[in-house]
Fold each of these.
Amino acid sequence: MNDALYDIPLQQIDGTATNLRPHQGKVMLIVNVASKCGLTPQYAGLEALHERYTERGFTVLGFPANDFAGQEPGSNAEIASFCTSNFGIRFPLYSKIVVTGEARHPLYSHLIAAHPDTEARAVMEEQLRGYGIEPTPRPEVLWNFEKILVDRNGQVVRRFAPDTKPDAEALITTIEGLL
């Protein structure tokens, strides 16, 4: 059991202090989310994934971050309202954090150290360069909606590139295997 992961201080989107202990023993899909990104429609797929597997011990956890092109400029209250009204989000959302660089939140420092490689990263790196955006260096989170899958014991098992859709076969197969 990777207890260190569960004890990292966090805040729920409403500012309430918490950590990941309420999710201990569950398979977690941790996603850095943003409301003004081309990938924002993934919220719908993430909610569907959460609903599909929640009774089997799975949860999606959303961590808003404004690290990429200012695509999450809102306050926590604005983010919560956006997610509820536009996508009916019921999976847990946390307060906005930093997921890259020197100011990176300890949660993401832990996750990245545990699993430095993001699958299919090169394809999205090229897409970003096509838009004139220089990708973050490895092992940093590449962009909004990178997906980090954690097993029931708190071990990071896979990192999926941001453009991996929530219903992608590789993601679904891995989740089902962990459940």
Note: The two ends are 16 Å apart (CA to CA).
Amino acid sequence: MDLRTHAGRSLPDDADRATLLARVFDPEVGGPCVAAVRGERVVDLTAVAPTVAALLERADAVAVARSAEGGRSWPLGELLEATLSGAETARFLAPVDLQVVKAAGVTFVRSMLERVIEERAAGDPARAGEIRARVGAAVRGRIAQLRPGSDEAARVKEVLVAEGLWSQYLEVGIGPDPEIFTKAPVLSAVGTGAEIGVLARSSWNNPEPELVLAVTSAGAPVAATLGNDVNLRDFEGRSALLLTEAKDNNSSCAIGPFLRLFDEHYTLDDARRTEVSLDITGSDGFVLHGVNPVSEISRDVTELISHAFGPHHRYPDGFVLFTGTMFAPTEDRDEPGQGFTHKLGDVVRISSPALGSLVNVVTTAEKAPDWSFGIGELMRNLAGRGAL
């Protein structure tokens, strides 16, 4: 599907003052280039830093992105058009490379209740409507304002256990420890314009629009971007032990379009105020819109980072952290009571005024392009180019 109509919305609204990092696949060198968006040009910085992870470790990363002498450059418009049309020319990739891709789950009340519903429905969407009404009536008012891990949360837990309504999802939603998991292998994320994959045998699945933070090896958040934590609700609903099959499949992790570095114009506090929009357009005429206000998160993003990183766990190349979503689409798409699930060809647009627009098309994980460019291939490519 041709996504070029989205090219004009790919950039942040204030792109003229945003410090943007990207990765560009260049067929001439057979691999990715670290790059910065500078006005209407995209400048290759691979000679300065061979990987995005390495560049983010530098104290002068913002200055490097803005003004370091680069190599070749590409017209921004041509790269966007090639990326969104699927052309086999120079094009944008996911803007992260050696960072581990981590994710926090159940960080919003709405998504927490939807996980409880999935669990109670055992992955059967036909039962979800009835369970949604019952669970929502029983617990929504009690937990909407709770601070996770607080004494009040512990008392609510006691009440819910007594009523037979306790769930592993409520445990991580309002208990002392959040859900932190590894979303995808290093280098497996896809960028804007790419296909995203759901397992062919999944009958209940959805996108998860999220703010994604880039964090250094010292645990400092230094940039933000957008992500789609593609999820199979039927798999996770049958058992939380199926989380890997529900979350980690071919092309099931999309990140982009760019990393916006924190600077004097855009800070971590600005990221906390992000409103992430989700728009789905189906070839069947189905249209869905939703908004994920990060300000409604149950735990501050720095708390989530502290559970992923610390004396208990280090990341020598840094990591990126999906911070969770409150948006779990429940609108009926086909039969009443069946809720939402993806169909092949769905166009999924995740956007924010400060971060641009991440656009992908749904296919099956089995039909999506194979992930073939791993860490070994990256090292061989960079070494062959004299970039290491």
Note: The longest strand covers residues 221-229.
Amino acid sequence: MEVGLQPSRSVLLSGPPGVGKSMTASYIAEQMKQTLVVVDLASVMSSYLGRTGRNLRAVLDYAAETECVLFIDEFDALAKRRDDNTDVGELKRLVNVLLLELDRWPAGSFLIAATNHLDLVDPAIARRFDVKIELPMPDYEQRRALLAQIPVIASSSVEAEYTSLLALATDGTSHSDIVKLVNGIAREAIIEDANLASFAERMANYSMFSLRNQSKSDTEVRSRVIRVAHDSLGYSQRKIAQILGVSHPTVSRVLAAREK
């Protein structure tokens, strides 16, 4: 404070659906030991002229007067670019409200906004956030770490080879969708077998079939899948060839090349 610096008061989270924007907001509020206040856009937005702006100002005034973390999801619905000619004047007025409130946002409260479409947010508003964080899709190592922490996997003592294979098969999949996928496979195992005895095998089968298309265009992925399926999962060369849609000699060559 002596040098004119203040703590950050706002953060703008962006990224595709399911990468953890809402969870990040909850985590920030927990670390700050403050209440998380989530804006319900359905109750803020109104078809009546001027009412949406008044509703939004009321929410922001409440949060500014209360030490809390205010979370606005789908922020682009309120802060849409003003150069969009298809928009009505009401939304442009909302941007003006947000600009004013962001400029005078108090240090005692914290504002978190999240959007799946950062390109739709008005640049003037985006610039006013103290911190901007882009949350990308998880890479292979992040997917593998996430899978190992999912309760049904951790409690079932699933071997690392199975999670590694599924991590490879879920390239381009969000954190949320990965968790839903694993829980769905576990439910199928319980419904059909009344237990999780086949859970790991079901994960492996899903992974192998999902990797079939990838392996056709990427020989490195195919080789890696063949080695994991043969060495760690105990699949026969014929079964691997059938699942991946390649010839038996192709599988044999990959395994033989590794031994040279």
Note: The first strand starts at residue 10 and ends at 14.
Amino acid sequence: MRLLVTGGAGYIGSVVAGQLLEAGHEVTIFDNLSRGHRRAIPGGARFVEGDLLDAERTREVLHEGFEGVLHFAALSLVGESVEEPERYYRNNVLGTLELLEAMVEGGASRLVFSSTAAVYGEPRKVPIEEDDPPLPTNPYGGSKLAVDRMISFVARARGLAAVSLRYFNVAGASGRFGEDHRPETHLIPLVLRTALGEREYVEVYGTDYPTPDGTAIRDYIHVEDLAHAHLLALEAAREGEHRIYNLGNGEGFSVRQVIETAREVTEREIEAKEAPRRPGDPPVLVASSGKIRRELGWKPEKPELAAMISDAWEWMLSHPGGYGG
């Protein structure tokens, strides 16, 4: 298929684009490079620099004729979204609206959307399932839920074949593609940067949660497993339907487990300092992946925390300074 990957110069988008190319698809990446990296663009992919909020540019690209779109372009920092909610709704919701209108005009019939389990907010039960009520607690999750709902209406009205994938924490690396966010807010790269000596210590926010070791538990999934789910979703999309799937590892890992596993993998001292809980952080966030396993046959091939951290560590060692080093 001829495919457009928005945000394809970012962490997840670049890995997905690489897998699409390996599967024989023709890939064009559309990215404004505000948080992506030119060096993350896979060889063999065509690159078009642009912003979804530029309606004319977006329509110009979509009118070239694509069979499908994989949509990763979004702002995704929870804390930043609390400080700048208007910016998040403008970028994530209006940007997607421009994309959907351009898709309809250009005849692109399939969409896979990178959603988030943050739409569920603080869960009433775990693991979280797709029919649990969405109650986002921050503008980032709220903007993604607004997009999910918009996609549902457009799919029914315009015959779009759409799938949203909701996931929490993505980790690991894939070949030359790795995680390089500026600023970095994710736990595993922060822990590994501490192992590299780029940080003095890693903070553990809350040690009095009702969990086995007192620290918060989160769902982690290897970026290669996550990317494979997007390819399955692309094939499974059906005209006029909007399917929603959670992507989870089946179990969660605590903050202490992440730090201890990183110590074992890196064979380095990693200093950890206790800090107060962050407001709104629930004790456990784990997503059920039962539905996508049943319907699409997806299953994680690298569910072990050590494998995720090992791959991320190897990438960091081979990319000092990230993509800019």
Note: The chain is about 40% helix and 20% strand.
